[in-house]
Design a protein that fits this description.
Blueprint (H helix, E strand, L loop, with lengths): L3 E7 L6 E7 L1 E7 L2 H6 L3 E5 L3 E3 L6 E4 L7 E5 L7 E3 L6 E5 L10 E7 L4 H12 L1
Parallel strand pairs: 3-10
Antiparallel strand pairs: 1-2, 2-5, 4-9, 6-7, 7-8, 8-9
Length: 130
């Protein structure tokens, strides 16, 4: 794996800003569950220790459903979900790669994930993180 660098990103209006450490080349995951499909979310998974919220938590709202394990954070002002704590990786973050500032990625590849059938396929997503 290549060396990690600092990436930055945020929401549309700029009220939510974050940074995280990850390699310049990353494999992204495109999930077809209802929430990811409707929002066009493109996952980039990082460990909790690699993620830093730069702006105040007061700028965020949280949405939970089903098991309540996933914490979907979005900007209180513009409504963009730029990161969240996923049920599949509760000790990390999923960052919406579409919300990362341009210029730090040298390469991206996208791998599909059948989240519409989550229970049957979660082992594939966890295996890809090992």
């Amino acid at each position: 794996m290549s060396e990690s660098i600092v990436h930055q990103g945020g929401c549309h209006c700029g009220n939510v800003r974050f940074e995280f450490d990850a390699p310049a080349e990353s494999v992204l995951s495109e999930c077809n569950c209802s929430v990811c499909h409707m929002s066009g979310y493109l996952h980039l998974f990082v460990d909790k220790s690699a993620f830093r919220l730069v702006t105040s938590e007061d700028e965020l709202s949280c949405y939970e459903f089903n098991t309540g394990v996933a914490k979907h954070y979005f900007c209180r002002n513009c409504g963009i979900k730029s990161f969240y704590i996923p049920r599949s990786h509760p000790h990390g973050y999923s960052i919406n790669a579409r919300c990362v500032d341009s210029g730090t990625y040298t390469s991206e590849s996208i791998k599909g994930f059948d989240g519409a059938n989550w229970e049957e396929n979660i082992h594939l997503l966890r295996k890809s993180r090992e």
